[in-house]
Amino acid sequence: xxxxxxxxxxxxxxxxxxxxxxxxxxxxxxxxxxxxxxxxxxxxxxxxxxxxxxxxxxxxxxxxxxxxxxxxxxxxxxxxxxxxxxxxxxxxxxxxxxxxxxxxxxx
Length: 107
Known about the structure:
single chain
């Protein structure tokens, strides 16, 4: 089971919403895995610290689809639920197309 927190564009407070969700899941005593779409390691470290587990980055542009699938599987290992924070905008900044590495592509 999992959920992706994504926004229509950059700056949609995805990090704050995702961290609040992670906190609520932990308080409900659910083992929570975390992953961050795209090459943003700062947000991913915040998530890792919030759940006291390793964080994983899903970036099909850098690692290919297989690398993203593996990272998601590792994030889910031993977890009841996985929270993934999307990258920039839902369609990677474009409202017309699904760009490589976009949140939409990962779903």
